[in-house]
Amino acid sequence: MALILSMETSTKVCSVCLSNNNTILAKRELFEANSHATHLTVLIQELFKDFPNITLQDIDTIAVSSGPGSYTGLRIGVSVAKGISYALNKPLIAITSLECLAQAAIGHPALQDKTDTELLFCPMIDARRMEVYTALFDASMQMKEKIRAQIIDSKSYRELLDTQSIVFFGDGADKCRDTIVHPNALFLDGQVPLASNMGGLAYKKYQDKQFEDLAYFEPFYLKDFVAIVSKNKIF
């Protein structure tokens, strides 16, 4: 048995999950922007209210979304995860936000009637303007194209779409719907990376002992943080 505490903070959604191997025991999700700093630890505490016989000390490992995504959200999530891992002397597991997003889309009910054996899954996280953080996965969660930042235009994925279907999803895909126009381009609405999708991925890494080094682990920001300077001069 492996009790896993997972947390996902790479987007506007703040979510946590308690799972036993591949089975979800409890989850908490807050769809509220800028809530991570004030609510993440509160959501973790609420997880254990449903299981009075289980405490934070009983977990076997902590899983955290490593990014890419929101700079601030990732920094908060990783800081909390590393703090709990260090305090309890429990191993830390990192799951990329795009893996988490893809895991939810693969096997989605809306795709049950699709018979394309070469179906590819393209999670997209908004990176402002027409840029997204993205990757490509097949139906067995094998990464076919590495995680990258990509500017989307009408030519994006054209060659692949001419030969096979690709499922696009995530808040980055929402803004690309009118740009990626092709009969083989499929779009799933309302998909966000959630901690409840991390359990199975984290359990596999736990079995394989793929743990992070607490001293050196940092979020996968992909791009450098860019501060926005206000145009309204105070002085």
Brief descriptors of the model:
single chain; 235 residues; alpha/beta; Nucleotidyltransferase, domain 5; 2 domains; five-stranded mixed β-sheet; 6 helices; 10 strands; 28% strand
Structure at a glance:
The chain folds into 2 domains: 3-97 and 193-207, 2-Layer Sandwich (Nucleotidyltransferase, domain 5); 99-188, Nucleotidyltransferase, domain 5 (2-Layer Sandwich).
Task: Report how far the terminal alpha carbons are from each other.
Answer: 60 Å
Total strand segments: 10
In quaternary terms, these chains amount to single chain
- Class by alpha and beta content: alpha/beta
Q: In one word, what is the shape?
A: globular
- Elements, N to C (H/E): EEEHEHEHEEEHEHEH
Characterise the protein shown here:
This protein has 235 residues and is an alpha/beta fold. The protein folds into two domains: 3-97 and 193-207, 2-Layer Sandwich (Nucleotidyltransferase, domain 5), CATH 3.30.420.40; 99-188, Nucleotidyltransferase, domain 5, CATH 3.30.420. It has six helices and ten strands. The chain has helices at residues 36-47, 71-88, 97-105, 158-161, 171-174, 199-207; strands at 3-8, 13-20, 23-31, 61-67, 92-96, 120-126, 131-137, 143-151, 166-169, 185-188. The strands form two sheets. Strands 3-2-1-4-5 form a five-stranded mixed β-sheet, with helices on both faces. A five-stranded mixed β-sheet has the order 8-7-6-9-10. Helix 1 (36-47) crosses helix 2. The chain is globular.
